[in-house]
């Protein structure tokens, strides 16, 4: 009888742990879904910006699709060359720790970091 009570307690503990694991997994899934939706929204925004810029270039300067392809190809090659070089992370002026680019402060010392848009393509 004591053994049965012990086994039932073990089963309940495992069921609770399993339910907690399911809850954690559901939370992670929801967080990834939110991040994915934000990335898709950003991609849509950048696509519209690129289309608008191309329309302006085509209509005002008369550039051809071939010229666009050549310029994009050259930029992609340049970008690939830059990616092969190691990138030094930005450092906190307060404690010299590497900064997380998603935060507006240093995660170690709390120093406030002013972030500016890196390009006109960045979404406000």
- Main sheet, how many strands, which sense, barrel? none
Structure summary, number of beta strands: 0
Through-space gap between termini: 66 Å
Q: Rg, please? A: 26 Å
Count helical runs: 2
Tell me the strand percentage band. under 5%
Which spans of ≥5 residues are poorly predicted at pLDDT below 50? none
Task: Look at the structure and give the mean pLDDT.
Answer: 86
Structure classification: mainly alpha
Task: Walk me through the structure.
With 124 residues, the protein is an all-alpha fold. It has two domains: 2-83; 88-114. It has helices at residues 2-61, 65-83. The longest helix has 60 residues, at 2-61.
Secondary-structure map:
Elements (H helix, E strand, L loop, with lengths): L1 H60 L3 H19 L41
Features of the shown structure:
single chain; 124 residues; 2 domains; 2 helices
Provide a concise account of the structure shown.
By secondary structure, the chain is mainly alpha-helical. The chain has helices spanning 2-61, 65-83. The radius of gyration is 26 Å and the shape is elongated.
């Amino acid at each position: 009888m004591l053994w049965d009570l012990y086994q039932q307690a073990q089963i309940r503990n495992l069921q609770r742990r399993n339910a907690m694991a399911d809850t954690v997994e559901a939370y992670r899934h929801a967080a990834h879904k939110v991040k994915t939706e934000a990335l898709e929204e950003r991609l849509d925004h950048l696509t519209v910006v690129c289309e608008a810029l191309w329309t302006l270039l085509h209509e005002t300067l008369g550039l051809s699709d071939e010229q666009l392809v050549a310029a994009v190809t050259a930029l992609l090659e340049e970008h690939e060359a830059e990616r092969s070089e190691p990138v030094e992370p930005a450092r906190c002026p307060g404690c010299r720790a590497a900064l997380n680019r998603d935060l507006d402060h240093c995660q170690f010392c709390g120093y406030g970091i002013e972030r500016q848009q890196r390009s006109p393509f960045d979404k406000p």
